[in-house]
Amino acid sequence: MSLPAPQSNAVVIVRVPAPWWAPNFLITGRFIDSIPEYAKAPGLLHKSYTFSEQREFGGVYLWESRRAAEAWFNEAWHERVRKQRGVEGNVRMLDAKYTVPGTANFTGKELPRHGLRTDAVITWLSSEPSTESSKLELLATVLPQSPGLVRVSFGTEQDGRLGVVSVWSSSAAAQAYWTAERRAAVSSVIGPHTLSTFDAPVVLDAAVAKQESP
To answer: Residue 114: what are its φ and ψ, rounded to 5°?
Structure first.
Protein backbone atom coordinates (compact mmCIF):
# COMPACT_ATOMS: atom_id res chain seq x y z
CA MET A 1 0.00 0.00 0.00
CA SER A 2 1.33 3.43 -0.92
CA LEU A 3 1.47 5.81 2.04
CA PRO A 4 0.90 9.59 1.89
CA ALA A 5 3.03 12.20 3.62
CA PRO A 6 2.95 11.85 7.42
CA GLN A 7 -0.09 13.40 9.10
CA SER A 8 -1.07 14.41 12.63
CA ASN A 9 -4.52 12.84 12.97
CA ALA A 10 -5.65 10.69 15.87
CA VAL A 11 -7.75 7.54 15.91
CA VAL A 12 -9.64 6.68 19.09
CA ILE A 13 -11.31 3.35 19.88
CA VAL A 14 -13.89 3.50 22.66
CA ARG A 15 -15.56 0.49 24.30
CA VAL A 16 -18.14 0.49 27.08
CA PRO A 17 -19.83 -2.72 28.33
CA ALA A 18 -23.44 -2.77 27.15
CA PRO A 19 -26.14 -3.20 29.83
CA TRP A 20 -27.47 -6.76 29.90
CA TRP A 21 -31.03 -5.51 29.49
CA ALA A 22 -30.41 -3.29 26.44
CA PRO A 23 -30.71 -5.01 23.04
CA ASN A 24 -28.50 -3.78 20.23
CA PHE A 25 -31.39 -2.23 18.33
CA LEU A 26 -32.17 0.00 21.31
CA ILE A 27 -28.55 1.13 21.59
CA THR A 28 -28.45 1.71 17.83
CA GLY A 29 -31.42 4.03 18.19
CA ARG A 30 -29.46 6.04 20.76
CA PHE A 31 -26.51 6.12 18.38
CA ILE A 32 -28.75 7.80 15.81
CA ASP A 33 -30.17 10.24 18.36
CA SER A 34 -26.63 11.41 19.24
CA ILE A 35 -25.61 12.27 15.67
CA PRO A 36 -26.32 16.03 16.02
CA GLU A 37 -24.09 16.23 19.11
CA TYR A 38 -21.14 14.49 17.46
CA ALA A 39 -21.63 16.32 14.16
CA LYS A 40 -20.63 19.49 16.04
CA ALA A 41 -17.68 18.01 17.99
CA PRO A 42 -14.64 20.26 17.42
CA GLY A 43 -11.97 18.52 15.38
CA LEU A 44 -13.97 15.33 14.70
CA LEU A 45 -13.70 14.13 11.09
CA HIS A 46 -15.54 10.81 11.25
CA LYS A 47 -17.22 8.52 13.74
CA SER A 48 -18.24 4.90 13.34
CA TYR A 49 -20.64 3.85 16.11
CA THR A 50 -19.68 0.31 17.03
CA PHE A 51 -20.45 -2.95 18.78
CA SER A 52 -17.50 -5.19 19.67
CA GLU A 53 -17.45 -8.98 19.60
CA GLN A 54 -17.68 -8.84 23.41
CA ARG A 55 -20.90 -6.77 23.15
CA GLU A 56 -19.34 -3.50 24.11
CA PHE A 57 -20.77 -0.41 22.48
CA GLY A 58 -18.76 2.66 21.59
CA GLY A 59 -17.10 4.10 18.55
CA VAL A 60 -14.07 4.40 16.35
CA TYR A 61 -13.22 8.06 15.77
CA LEU A 62 -10.94 9.91 13.37
CA TRP A 63 -9.86 13.32 14.74
CA GLU A 64 -7.93 16.19 13.18
CA SER A 65 -5.35 15.96 15.96
CA ARG A 66 -4.50 14.30 19.24
CA ARG A 67 -5.23 17.59 20.99
CA ALA A 68 -8.81 17.57 19.68
CA ALA A 69 -9.26 13.95 20.75
CA GLU A 70 -7.90 14.56 24.26
CA ALA A 71 -10.10 17.64 24.66
CA TRP A 72 -13.19 15.48 24.02
CA PHE A 73 -12.13 12.44 26.06
CA ASN A 74 -11.23 14.44 29.13
CA GLU A 75 -11.80 13.60 32.80
CA ALA A 76 -15.33 15.01 32.61
CA TRP A 77 -16.12 12.49 29.83
CA HIS A 78 -14.81 9.60 31.94
CA GLU A 79 -16.71 10.80 35.01
CA ARG A 80 -19.92 11.02 32.97
CA VAL A 81 -19.51 7.41 31.80
CA ARG A 82 -18.87 6.24 35.35
CA LYS A 83 -21.95 8.09 36.61
CA GLN A 84 -24.31 7.07 33.81
CA ARG A 85 -23.06 3.53 33.15
CA GLY A 86 -21.45 2.48 36.41
CA VAL A 87 -18.35 1.30 34.53
CA GLU A 88 -15.11 2.70 33.18
CA GLY A 89 -14.96 3.61 29.51
CA ASN A 90 -12.07 1.93 27.69
CA VAL A 91 -10.38 4.56 25.50
CA ARG A 92 -7.41 3.71 23.27
CA MET A 93 -5.78 6.51 21.33
CA LEU A 94 -3.43 6.20 18.35
CA ASP A 95 -1.36 8.92 16.76
CA ALA A 96 -2.42 8.26 13.17
CA LYS A 97 0.68 8.98 11.14
CA TYR A 98 -0.93 7.83 7.89
CA THR A 99 -4.57 7.68 6.79
CA VAL A 100 -5.17 6.23 3.33
CA PRO A 101 -8.52 6.35 1.50
CA GLY A 102 -9.75 3.12 -0.04
CA THR A 103 -11.76 2.62 -3.19
CA ALA A 104 -15.11 1.74 -1.57
CA ASN A 105 -17.86 3.94 -0.16
CA PHE A 106 -20.40 3.40 2.57
CA THR A 107 -23.86 2.35 1.46
CA GLY A 108 -27.11 2.34 3.41
CA LYS A 109 -29.98 4.48 4.64
CA GLU A 110 -29.27 8.20 4.94
CA LEU A 111 -29.70 9.79 8.36
CA PRO A 112 -29.69 13.45 9.49
CA ARG A 113 -26.46 15.49 9.52
CA HIS A 114 -24.57 13.11 7.19
CA GLY A 115 -25.16 10.01 9.23
CA LEU A 116 -25.74 6.67 7.56
CA ARG A 117 -27.34 3.40 8.66
CA THR A 118 -24.94 0.87 7.20
CA ASP A 119 -23.41 -2.62 7.23
CA ALA A 120 -19.87 -1.30 7.74
CA VAL A 121 -17.27 -3.16 9.79
CA ILE A 122 -14.09 -1.92 11.49
CA THR A 123 -10.99 -4.07 12.01
CA TRP A 124 -8.25 -3.11 14.45
CA LEU A 125 -4.87 -4.78 14.24
CA SER A 126 -2.68 -4.13 17.28
CA SER A 127 0.89 -5.22 17.99
CA GLU A 128 2.50 -6.05 21.31
CA PRO A 129 3.81 -3.08 23.37
CA SER A 130 7.21 -1.57 22.59
CA THR A 131 7.24 -2.65 18.95
CA GLU A 132 9.78 -0.72 16.85
CA SER A 133 7.98 2.32 15.43
CA SER A 134 9.92 2.01 12.18
CA LYS A 135 7.92 -1.12 11.43
CA LEU A 136 4.79 0.94 10.93
CA GLU A 137 5.83 1.78 7.37
CA LEU A 138 6.83 -1.84 6.73
CA LEU A 139 3.29 -2.94 7.54
CA ALA A 140 2.08 -1.13 4.44
CA THR A 141 4.20 -3.41 2.26
CA VAL A 142 2.20 -6.48 3.35
CA LEU A 143 -1.21 -4.76 3.48
CA PRO A 144 -2.31 -3.94 -0.07
CA GLN A 145 -5.42 -2.06 -1.08
CA SER A 146 -8.49 -4.26 -1.44
CA PRO A 147 -12.09 -4.05 -2.69
CA GLY A 148 -14.42 -2.97 0.08
CA LEU A 149 -11.86 -0.84 1.93
CA VAL A 150 -13.21 2.63 2.76
CA ARG A 151 -10.24 3.95 4.73
CA VAL A 152 -7.26 2.68 6.73
CA SER A 153 -5.15 4.45 9.37
CA PHE A 154 -1.68 3.43 10.54
CA GLY A 155 -0.70 4.68 13.99
CA THR A 156 1.13 4.22 17.27
CA GLU A 157 0.02 4.21 20.91
CA GLN A 158 1.99 5.72 23.77
CA ASP A 159 3.08 2.27 25.02
CA GLY A 160 4.68 1.50 21.66
CA ARG A 161 1.90 -0.60 20.18
CA LEU A 162 1.46 -0.26 16.44
CA GLY A 163 -2.09 -0.18 15.14
CA VAL A 164 -3.88 -0.49 11.83
CA VAL A 165 -7.54 0.57 11.91
CA SER A 166 -9.41 -0.34 8.72
CA VAL A 167 -12.94 0.72 7.80
CA TRP A 168 -14.78 -1.72 5.53
CA SER A 169 -18.02 -1.35 3.60
CA SER A 170 -19.16 -4.82 4.73
CA SER A 171 -18.27 -7.80 6.89
CA ALA A 172 -17.70 -9.90 3.77
CA ALA A 173 -15.01 -7.49 2.55
CA ALA A 174 -13.21 -7.58 5.91
CA GLN A 175 -13.35 -11.36 6.15
CA ALA A 176 -12.04 -11.76 2.61
CA TYR A 177 -9.08 -9.54 3.43
CA TRP A 178 -7.89 -10.94 6.74
CA THR A 179 -6.89 -14.40 5.60
CA ALA A 180 -4.49 -16.66 7.48
CA GLU A 181 -1.85 -15.84 4.88
CA ARG A 182 -2.25 -12.08 5.46
CA ARG A 183 -2.06 -12.50 9.22
CA ALA A 184 1.14 -14.53 8.75
CA ALA A 185 2.60 -11.74 6.62
CA VAL A 186 1.79 -9.25 9.38
CA SER A 187 3.43 -11.51 11.96
CA SER A 188 6.59 -11.60 9.85
CA VAL A 189 6.83 -7.80 10.25
CA ILE A 190 5.62 -7.07 13.79
CA GLY A 191 5.39 -10.45 15.49
CA PRO A 192 2.44 -11.35 17.76
CA HIS A 193 -0.63 -9.20 17.33
CA THR A 194 -4.38 -9.14 17.87
CA LEU A 195 -7.15 -8.48 15.37
CA SER A 196 -10.45 -7.14 16.68
CA THR A 197 -13.63 -6.68 14.66
CA PHE A 198 -16.44 -4.21 15.31
CA ASP A 199 -19.84 -3.91 13.66
CA ALA A 200 -20.53 -0.30 12.70
CA PRO A 201 -24.30 0.03 12.15
CA VAL A 202 -24.15 3.84 12.10
CA VAL A 203 -21.45 6.11 10.67
CA LEU A 204 -21.10 9.88 10.68
CA ASP A 205 -19.16 12.07 8.26
CA ALA A 206 -18.64 14.88 10.76
CA ALA A 207 -16.30 16.86 8.53
CA VAL A 208 -18.98 17.29 5.84
CA ALA A 209 -21.66 18.01 8.45
CA LYS A 210 -19.59 20.91 9.76
CA GLN A 211 -19.06 22.31 6.26
CA GLU A 212 -22.80 22.46 5.70
CA SER A 213 -23.72 23.91 9.10
CA PRO A 214 -25.27 27.39 8.95
So the answer is: 65, 35
